[in-house]
């Protein structure tokens, strides 16, 4: 490039979140087009892209100038006054010292500034000024703000202070962004003269900048929409909200020369600054705290001692000499690659977690292939037992950092991170930042909102954008693929505007947050290595560089993952122990297995050959079992009928798009229905455990080793090239593979066939180490469900205690799948969470809607060892004001007070006086107004309870459903089941079973839970309705022809009978409604053959007769069935039986009405 006339020193990239729109990747091209050999990036209050920009610009032949626009708290407020908002200055790193200080200042912006906007003080700026060039910030900078306010002395004083802090490195910044008629902005007009005068008076150089926010002027309107998204404003609001102009784009040197023709020195100084700045962005070697003086020897000691301890208790998969040889091999590679410290650090925090009873997963990812990791207890899978390869984890022929992904109990993961902070120092530990982007659908929604378009229209447009995998396609691609989107853009100007702006802002960054698991640990304060950021939702700082660039800076990521399943397992074990048993003891006290001494409750010690567990897998009763609870997995289990852990490992690996096509072959070969096809005799032993199918990446590596003579390291490189479809590498490897195979006696044609086969499967192959680790966790949950079903399901439900939809599925599994009784919510029997008593699952109070586990804990604490006797006793012992009225309402609706007062409606209507009574008692206690002879409140009169009658049975169920989220003590269809059976109406479970043999037309009954209506592309309405019957939940689709006549019957709480077309698609029951009618009409002529009614007092007989006579009069039907009574009064010597002389029409409604009568204990069909 020719000698430059101007260099941009103030550019905002997409990392100026929802503010900058210059994409980092596009910046080198912008520079080349403008003839600029250098450029500075100065994002607002961050260095998020400093490394990325430096590497990318250098690689493109552009000199990167690393900088930042920093908000300076320049005018401290006097006591009692509001401080002036901080104002920006621009800092540019001149050298390595300056880069270090820029990182420090960026960290100062956030750390220790809780509740404040990001800012640095003048003192912090002065303390970290070495190696930095400072631009005064232009018209909106701190000096400019004083000038705008007419405070010239303050402006002069601050300029003097900055000049002292940056000797020969302070530049007075001028900006010109002319609007219509060439007029500068008001701020520029108000400050330029003052800036120039001070610069000349103090002998300070001038510098011209253009405050760049977008690449070209034609993006101004789209950028303004972006600013509105950030500010919650609207595009068509009055102009005063706009602080930028169409001039804030990436101008050419010629355009800047025309603007500053009168001050050429200001342009020349941009070039001078660029020449003064020189920083190399080189990748650092991994930086870790030193764990021991001699890490190599310490690792060898721990590994050998650990392996000896393992081999003393586990069955050997190979001779001890083979274990020792493998250990020495791995240690040699770890040492040669310089990673002993990494292994020691990971082993240390995992050992600490285990010593503190924090559940740790057996492994995840390729790390489970390391015997050293197994010896150090980092993993709990013997790699020789599962034929796992170390080279898949750490390849001596491809140097890269090892990466252990560690699963911890979800509830206690933070404790492990806190331990690491304490051990290495809080200033040396941080999380890793991540960024969220404006993807196409979100861009359309956000731009539509700031354009004030109707929500429904924007929602419809957003839904027209197709999704590939888990992400929506780009707006450009959606326009190419979706004609309805193109038509909308062509016919409506506002839609065209929306999509134009949407494409321009799509992909820009929206927000910063922290990586779910990643933590870095340094050997020095991290702000000496990377700039730090503070997520307001976390107490722990985060790096300003994301995962990729943190590694470039030399920091090593450690993954602390939270796995809910580990929490489920621990919950179950805790409940087993709470019940007075240990993991190896069955409910009847018999031994399930013989544990090692001291490992009676170690889930890792359970046998992997348990028949009950494999029967559970084979029957697909795997609701809540890790990895295999989907309907598709259940179907695969029924076909596979696993008999060993290797089957589960294979299923975890196979059940993915592509490989799952091989599941039928695997099952047929396993059960002898199909012969195992040999690819070549030399590799049959490698594929024997997977029925001749290439399933694992490790098998690809082993085949290359055995057939073509590759080292396992070289085979891993081959696998990676195949998996990533790297053509150049593949072209080089093919002849190498064929030549190697020929040396081993395999002809070229067969070698080519095998290479092609490997190429296909390398893309689909799964990491066996990961599959094995997760298969073991799956087996552990299946073993618990098979051997300790109540405790396991309680543990599962406690992990999802606030997810009503999941609790409904689990409750159904407990009652119908496992035939286990559920004790309903009860203030005298329930804990705050799910519990187990006498083999029954006790419903947790904290699982009710709109209550909290902590609030329900107050009830459990108040109860102690003495059950509540009455509602008033409850109010005296529990401060109901602390519980809150809404949770108390839910408890009443759910029947949690039934032992104290069976009339639920009375409890609900009496809550106000009960809460007031409780408050008065507890207020007296708090005031220490205790009587000399009794407890406070003993003299307070108990309030009167409401005299209201209780709800009818179906009303009770409806109220219970509001509180619990589903029907627990009964179902609205219970009274109808006999009549429905007579009408050949099928249950959900029966329909699902029938549909397995092909599509079916059937009648079903259901209680309506909800309905959502939609409009098709043609404008026709359709709906999804959610219903339930006593055997489960289901959803029905209704198209307009049925929906129009059914809408009035499909309100929540109604009971209906539907005619449906039932099919199974991917093992999911799909129901399409043909007809819908109210249940009462559907079973009107299917009443009971008669009733037998058990009553507890003679007066109830007359009440029943009155109900029957009234019903007969309303229906006009005289006869149908007899009505018998069984009187069970306590003053009678025995039961007395009698019958009414007439016969009556008996319907489910009449049965329900009779059940609700006082004195009626039970109603049965004859």
UniProtKB/TrEMBL annotation:
Its main location: cytoplasm. Gene3D superfamilies: 1.10.150.870, Bacterial DNA polymerase III alpha subunit, thumb domain, Metal-dependent hydrolases. GO terms for molecular function: 3'-5' exonuclease activity; DNA-directed DNA polymerase activity. Transmembrane segments: none annotated. The keyword Iron-sulfur does not apply. DNA polymerase III is a complex, multichain enzyme responsible for most of the replicative synthesis in bacteria. This DNA polymerase also exhibits 3' to 5' exonuclease activity. The alpha chain is the DNA polymerase. This is DNA polymerase III subunit alpha. It comes from Rhodovulum adriaticum (Rhodopseudomonas adriatica).
């Amino acid at each position: 490039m020719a000698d430059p006339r101007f260099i941009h020193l103030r550019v905002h990239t997409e990392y100026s979140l929802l503010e900058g729109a210059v994409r980092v990747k596009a910046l080198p091209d912008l520079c080349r087009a403008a003839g600029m050999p250098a450029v500075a990036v100065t994002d607002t209050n961050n260095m998020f892209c400093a490394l990325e920009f430096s590497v990318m610009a250098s690689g493109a032949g552009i000199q990167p100038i690393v900088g930042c626009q920093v908000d300076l708290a320049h005018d401290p407020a006097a006591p009692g006054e509001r401080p002036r908002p901080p104002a920006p200055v621009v800092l540019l790193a001149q050298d390595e010292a300056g880069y270090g200080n820029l990182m420090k200042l960026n960290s100062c912006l956030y750390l220790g500034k809780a509740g404040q906007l990001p800012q640095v003080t003048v003192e912090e700026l002065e303390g970290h000024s070495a190696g930095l060039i400072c631009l005064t910030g232009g018209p909106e900078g701190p000096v400019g703000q004083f000038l705008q306010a007419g405070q010239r002395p303050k402006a002069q004083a601050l300029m003097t202070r900055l000049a002292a802090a940056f000797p020969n490195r302070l530049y007075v910044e001028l900006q010109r962004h002319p609007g219509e008629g060439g007029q500068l902005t008001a701020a520029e007009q108000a400050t330029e003269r003052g800036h120039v005068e001070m610069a000349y008076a103090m002998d300070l150089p001038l510098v011209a900048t253009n405050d760049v926010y977008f690449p070209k002027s034609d993006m101004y309107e789209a950028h303004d929409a972006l600013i509105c998204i950030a500010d919650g404003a609207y595009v068509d609001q009055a102009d005063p909200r706009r602080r930028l102009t169409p001039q804030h784009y990436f101008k050419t040197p010629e355009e800047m020369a025309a603007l500053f023709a009168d001050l050429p020195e200001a342009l020349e100084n941009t070039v001078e600054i660029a020449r003064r700045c020189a920083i190399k962005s080189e990748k650092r070697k991994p930086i870790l705290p030193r764990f021991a003086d001699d890490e190599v020897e310490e690792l060898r000691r721990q590994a050998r001692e650990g392996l000896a301890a393992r081999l003393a208790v586990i069955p050997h998969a190979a001779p001890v000499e083979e274990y020792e040889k493998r250990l020495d091999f791995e240690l040699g590679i770890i040492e040669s690659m310089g990673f002993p410290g990494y292994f020691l650090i990971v082993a240390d925090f995992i050992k600490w977690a285990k010593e503190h009873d924090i559940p740790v997963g057996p492994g995840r990812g390729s790390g489970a292939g390391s015997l050293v990791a197994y010896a150090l207890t980092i993993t709990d899978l013997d790699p020789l037992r599962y034929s796992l390869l170390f080279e898949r984890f750490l390849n001596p022929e491809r140097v890269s950092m090892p990466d252990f992904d560690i699963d911890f109990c979800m509830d206690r993961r933070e404790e492990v991170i806190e331990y690491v902070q304490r051990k290495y120092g809080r200033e040396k530990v941080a999380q890793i930042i991540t960024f969220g982007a404006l993807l196409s659908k979100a861009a359309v929604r956000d731009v539509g909102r700031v354009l004030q378009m109707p929500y429904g229209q924007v929602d419809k447009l957003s839904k027209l954008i197709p999704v590939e995998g888990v992400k929506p396609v780009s707006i450009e691609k959606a326009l190419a693929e979706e004609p309805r989107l193109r038509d909308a853009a062509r016919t409506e100007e506002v839609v065209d505007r929306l999509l134009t702006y949407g494409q321009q802002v799509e992909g820009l960054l929206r927000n910063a947050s922290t990586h779910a698991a990643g933590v870095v640990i340094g050997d020095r304060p991290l702000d000496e290595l990377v700039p730090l950021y503070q997520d307001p939702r976390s107490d722990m700082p985060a790096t300003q560089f994301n995962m990729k660039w943190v590694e470039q800076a030399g920091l090593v990521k450690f993954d602390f993952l939270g796995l809910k399943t580990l929490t489920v397992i621990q919950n179950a074990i805790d409940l087993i122990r709470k019940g007075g048993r240990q993991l190896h003891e069955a409910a009847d006290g018999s031994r399930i297995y013989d544990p090692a001494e001291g490992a009676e409750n170690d889930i890792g010690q359970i046998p992997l050959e348990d028949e009950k567990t494999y029967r559970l897998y084979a029957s697909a009763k795997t609701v809540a079992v890790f990895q295999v609870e989907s309907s598709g997995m259940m179907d695969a289990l029924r076909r596979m009928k696993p008999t060993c852990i290797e089957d589960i490992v294979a299923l975890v690996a196979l059940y993915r798009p592509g490989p799952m096509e091989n599941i039928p072959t695997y099952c047929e070969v396993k059960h002898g229905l199909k012969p195992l096809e040999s690819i070549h005799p030399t590799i049959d032993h490698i594929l024997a455990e997977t029925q001749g199918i290439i399933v694992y990446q490790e098998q690809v590596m082993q085949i290359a080793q055995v057939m073509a003579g590759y080292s396992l390291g070289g085979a891993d490189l081959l696998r990676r090239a195949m998996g990533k479809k790297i053509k150049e590498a593949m072209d080089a490897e093919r002849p190498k593979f064929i030549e190697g195979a020929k040396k081993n006696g395999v002809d070229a044609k067969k070698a080519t066939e095998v290479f092609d086969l490997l190429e296909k499967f390398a893309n689909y192959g799964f990491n066996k180490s990961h599959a094995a680790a997760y298969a073991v966790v799956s087996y552990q949950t299946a073993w618990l469900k098979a051997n300790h079903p109540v405790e396991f399901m309680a543990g599962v439900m406690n992990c999802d205690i606030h997810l009503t939809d999941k609790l409904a599925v689990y409750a159904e599994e407990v009652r119908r799948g496992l035939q286990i009784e559920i004790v309903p919510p009860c203030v005298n029997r329930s804990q705050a969470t799910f519990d187990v008593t006498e083999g029954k699952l006790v419903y947790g109070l904290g699982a009710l809607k709109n209550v909290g586990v902590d609030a329900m804990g107050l009830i459990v604490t108040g109860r102690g060892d003495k059950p509540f006797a009455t509602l008033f006793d409850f109010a005296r012992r529990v401060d109901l004001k602390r519980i809150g009225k809404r949770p108390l309402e839910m408890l009443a609706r759910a029947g949690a007070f039934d032992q104290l007062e069976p009339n639920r409606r009375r409890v609900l209507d009496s809550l106000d006086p009960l809460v007031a009574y409780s408050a008065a008692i507890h207020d007296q206690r708090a005031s220490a107004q205790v009587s000399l002879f009794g407890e406070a409140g003993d003299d307070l009169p108990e309030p009167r309870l409401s005299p209201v009658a209780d709800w009818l049975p179906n009303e009770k169920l409806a109220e219970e459903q509001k509180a619990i989220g589903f029907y627990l003590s009964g179902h609205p269809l219970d009274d109808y089941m006999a009549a429905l059976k007579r009408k050949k109406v099928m249950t959900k479970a029966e329909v699902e079973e029938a549909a397995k043999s092909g599509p079916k037309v059937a009648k079903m009954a259901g209680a309506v839970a909800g309905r959502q209506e939609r409009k098709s592309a043609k404008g026709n309405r359709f709906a999804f309705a959610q219903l339930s019957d006593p055997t489960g939940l289901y959803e029905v689709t209704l198209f307009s022809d049925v929906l129009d006549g059914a809408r009035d019957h499909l309100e929540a709480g109604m009971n209906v009978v539907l005619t449906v077309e039932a099919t199974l698609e991917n093992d999911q029951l799909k129901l399409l409604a043909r007809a819908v009618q109210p249940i009462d009409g559907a079973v009107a002529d299917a009443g009971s053959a008669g009733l037998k009614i058990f009553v507890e007092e003679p007066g109830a007989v007359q009440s029943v007769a009155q109900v029957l006579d009234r019903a007969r009069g309303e229906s006009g039907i005289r006869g149908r069935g007899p009505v018998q009574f069984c009187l069970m009064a306590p003053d009678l010597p025995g039961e007395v039986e009698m019958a009414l002389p007439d016969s009556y029409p008996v319907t489910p409604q009449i049965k329900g009405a009779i059940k609700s009568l006082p004195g009626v204990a039970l109603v049965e069909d004859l």
